[in-house]
Amino acid sequence: MSCANLKRLSTQHVLVGWREIRAVIEAARNRDLSGNADIVGTYEQALARCFGSPHAVACSSGTAAIHLALLALDVATGDEVIVPATAPVMTALPVLAVGARPIFADVASPHTFALDLRDVGDKITRKTCAVISVPMWGYPSDGPELVAACRRWEVPLIEDAAQAHGTTLEGRRLGTQGLIGTFSTHARKLICTGEGGFCLTDDLNLAARLSQLRSLGRAAEARGFGGAFGLNYKLPALSAALGLTQLTRLDQRLATRRRIAGRLTGALGDIPGIDLFPVHPYGSANFYAMLITAAPDRASQLGQALLAEGVESDTLRYDYRPLYEAPIFRNGTSATLCPNAERLCSTLLTLPCHEGVITADIDRIVGICRKVMGS
Ligand SMILES: *Cc1c(COP(=O)(O)O)cnc(C)c1O
């Protein structure tokens, strides 16, 4: 094994340069550091423009964004929220925070993160107050079909697009299809403010409500506190300065990741036993990660072999499995089997596809894959 083989290839790539450093220093000079600073409003306007949404509300994390969305929709104790079984724990924790029950629904096949509309339909009850869709690893999944179904069921749709900055479906950026779109800007995500998040919505009243809930219940024009419920989920000014700069990099990042994904696709496509996870025919992924599948025993063998040579996979890192298997959700929730989610989780593997992946890394990944698959 040569030295080059030992380079650790993380699933995360933080892209922070002089532009970010300058922007943060400038914001610090302003001495206006709280989440009420003007720069936070500027960042929100830039977010709205970038995603093609009328309103954006910045907040302190992606988890906070989902919590705010549920609060704004009055989801409360005893209510039920439909969550895909393939979602991460962060999607469903806010459901517990408002006292509601996550009801895990299956995905439409082992080759998509789109919800199975029949399974969701079966699980909708009078208590259902929201459906959350989660395009994992930035792969476009739920689209107009789910939007139309939610309208029929008269249940609001929240898009947890925390991993899907810049992902498109039928020409729209994700996060703008449902009543509220939620995002994270955690260090791992494609727009990074360290910790942070935001909500998108078309609805002016909802935007005002989200903003009020984020700011201790204080409405934008009101004086003082105590008029309405709220929490402090504001995004600090320095993080907004970072986010504003990060936004200007998004298109370039998407282009770079799509190019690397194209090269990985070309190199992995002809290895027997490895399949590329399909991208929705009317969509484009942001390649937060590149997804491949293999038979369950081979997938875990491949994941271990990659890790042994320094290549991380999210599916291994998080021990990816249907969310109803997590101890915190096992009790008191409907732990019914979701066969497609089971299959998807056991066959899926993520590969790094970020700006730090160079030709030698691609060769290394492909070499390991060939070796494990015996081709
Ligand atoms: C990262 C993430 C979250 C949570 O975001 P934080 O900013 O870490 O709180 C929620 N949902 C999904 C799908 C995520 O990837």
Short recap of the structure:
This protein has 375 residues and is an alpha/beta fold. The protein has helices at 18-29, 38-51, 62-72, 89-97, 117-123, 144-153, 204-214, 237-247, 250-268, 296-308, 314-317, 327-330, 339-347, 359-373, and strands at residues 55-59, 80-84, 101-105, 128-133, 157-160, 168-169, 172-173, 180-184, 197-201, 275-276, 283-284, 290-293, 348-351. Helix 6 (144-153) links the parallel strand 4 (128-133) and strand 5 (157-160).
Low-confidence stretches: none
Q: How many helices does DSSP assign?
A: 14
- Oligomeric composition of the shown chains: single chain
Q: What value does the Rg take, in angstroms?
A: 21 Å
Bound molecules: pyridoxal-5'-phosphate
Q: Give the strand order, joined by hyphens, for the main sheet.
A: 1-9-8-5-4-2-3
- Average pLDDT works out at 95
The H/E string reads HHEHEHEHEHEEEEEHHHEEEHHHHEH
Describe the structure.
With 375 residues, the protein is an alpha/beta fold. It has 14 helices and 13 strands. Strands 1-9-8-5-4-2-3 form a 7-stranded mixed sheet, with helices on both faces. Strands 7-6-11 form a 3-stranded antiparallel sheet, with no helix packed on it. A 3-stranded antiparallel sheet has the order 10-12-13. Helix 1 runs antiparallel to helix 8 and helix 10 crosses helix 14. The chain is globular, with a radius of gyration of 21 Å. The structure holds pyridoxal-5'-phosphate. Pyridoxal-5'-phosphate binds next to helix 3 and helix 4.
